[in-house]
Amino acid sequence: MDIFSEENLKNARVGKWYDELAQSVDKCVFCDLREKYVVAKKGGSVLTVSLFPYIDGQLMVITKRHIERFDEMLVTEWREAKFLLDLGIRLIREMVGIDGINVLYREGEGAGKSVGHLHFHLLPITSEFMTYDKNVGFVWKFQQITVSPVEMAERMREHLLAGGTG
């Protein structure tokens, strides 16, 4: 099975096989990130589409340097990451048309982080994706992905080249 095929990238979360896949990778997927997924760069950080998105339009900000904890970030890396987080939020609003966005960072045991390399998720939030249950709190429901990560990255790069988020 080609885990990086367009169909597998689109359906890993819904198909429930992502966790098994994440544990089977023998190198850091973020250190080995391919250019075709990158939307923008700023110094030591990149804005990228999620390879295995929870929802269409999900982006990530990743440091190029392999670090695992927030307190390992240099001030310059944080400034660059902040710039890309802001850019990503604007891209989601302009291209996906969703105003509700969660910025998610996970650290430590039990936080649900599947890749050790420091990264931030930018999640477009809709009522279909996130609901509230008074007994358990907010509940995520993975969505069927309609636009492959590679296609989403291409669209966003083209949008930026055309002067988007100016």
Question: What would you note in describing this structure?
Answer:
This protein has 166 residues and is an alpha+beta fold. It has a single domain, classed as 2-Layer Sandwich (HIT family, subunit A). 29% of the residues lie in helices and 20% in strands. It has 4 helices and 7 strands. It has a 5-stranded antiparallel beta sheet. A two-stranded antiparallel sheet has the order 6-7. The termini are far apart. The mean pLDDT is 86.
Quick recap of the structure?
The protein has 166 residues and is an alpha+beta fold. Helices cover 29% and strands 20% of the residues.
Which characteristics define this entry?
166 residues, alpha+beta, HIT family, subunit A, five-stranded antiparallel sheet, two-stranded antiparallel sheet, 4 helices, 29% helix, 20% strand
Helix and strand arrangement:
Elements: H1 6-11, H2 18-24, E1 38-42, E2 45-49, E3 59-63, H3 75-96, E4 101-104, E5 119-124, E6 130-133, E7 137-140, H4 149-161
Antiparallel strand pairs: 1-2, 2-3, 3-5, 4-5, 6-7
Query: What would you call the shape?
Result: globular
- The total of helices stands at 4
Q: What is the CA-atom radius of gyration, in angstroms?
A: 15 Å
Q: What is the ordering of alpha helices and beta strands?
A: HHEEEHEEEEH
> What structural class do the secondary elements suggest?
alpha+beta
CATH topology: HIT family, subunit A
Helix content: 25-40%
Quickly name the level 1 CATH class: Alpha Beta
CATH architecture: 2-Layer Sandwich
The number of domains is 1
CATH homologous superfamily designation: HIT-like
* Separation of the first and last Cα atoms: 41 Å
Strand share of the residues? 15-25%
